[in-house]
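Fold it.
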Amino acid sequence: MKKFDLIFAAILVPVDFLMIVLAAVSAYFLRFTPLVTEIRLVIFNLPFQEYLTVAIFVAILWLALFAFSGLYKIKDEKNPAQEFYKIFLACSAGIMLVMVLIFARRELFSSRFIVLAAWGFSIIFVAFGRLLISRIQTAFRKRGYGVRKIILIGADRVADTIAQEIKEKPEMGYRLVGIIKDYSNDIISQVKNFLNQHPDLYQIIQSKNGIPQEVSLHLVDFCDENHLVFKYTPDLFETQSINIEVGTLAGIPIMELKRTRLEGWGRIVKRVFDLIGSTILIILTSPVMLLIAIAIKLDSPGPVFFSRYDNGEKLKRVGEHGQLFSYFKFRSMQPGTHSLRYQELAELNLRSDGPLVKIKNDPRITYVGKFIRKYSLDELPELFLVFAGQMSLVGPRPHFPEEVGRYQKHHKKSLMIKPGITGLAQISGRSDLSFEDEVRLDAYYIENWSLLLDLQILLRTPLAVLKYRKVC
């Protein structure tokens, strides 16, 4: 999901909040206009300050209803009629909530007119606010901002219709950078050529039903490996997938293979969760980190943190979408011995099943290092990387570039999201698992992410730390 779409999706929340409060305020002042008071006298006392406080509280509750109604779900295309219908249902549910509160606390409101007027205004104002944001977003797209580059695979009437729709409606936010109609050559090679020309390619749409299923599945793997959205018209695959979403383009049904739930609002929610969680954990663990730092300095000469390679270069690990980031943790080994894992100690590697390295009876580990590794205390500084947005509390473990360089195709799916301090693999056997088992668990997490799953993993991590791992 492009940052452009995420920004406008995030803007909807304060705009909706403002529109709901504005609707409540408008209903309040309408009640006291001469036009209304002549019809029905004001026989109650409702100070505006008190009313506004209640209105703000109710608006916050309504935002939750909007979220449950799917009004914050990010889609490539939105149906205005469906969105207005959802606004109507959400506002109606919200006003029913207000009526329940009135029933529970009769002094909350003394005017049924204000309640009904606020309901009508809220529908109109929220719809207007969203229409305004949509028009602004469209204006930006017409000027080339937030444009999603796509290539189309297909030589049939469906492909021609989609291509024509994209060209005629730039406000949709698509830019067609290529069409593949020749199937005599390798399709993957043709896609790679387009990707080389357009590194910011966003998605591929396949509309040709005659492409062999094996080729289509290879194309899906290629999209996963290169972090591209893959969509296709129906009846392409005989196999079924639970991670699909059906939409339309130019009136033609198009199905998208969802790579992860961590797109759109899922990404925003996870980032907010990481920010709050890392802040709390940094505060709680700061005394422990201070004691560890002192123990490391007393135990052996060298820096407190392992943050540089033996040649002095900054330590790097591979993050989201294969991007490198500066990494550090508490030092648990003798300084200047990192490179030995690939040289003199390579024959002691226990992880022959994959690209990772785990040394048996590692002679580089210090006395304090053995203790902090056993209980994963050496990884506590990663909380600062979570706070900075380089890592997440939960996700696949970050690996060295030289290890990622040995990944096979299906291993690269774990690079789709931010790496984490803990994850399904860590609570399911930690380093005792085979690398392929770790990959399968990471893939399951990526496809089935939820905030509840993150909470379950975090709560089970301390027990896993005490139960599973043995330091070699």
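The chain has a mean pLDDT of 83.
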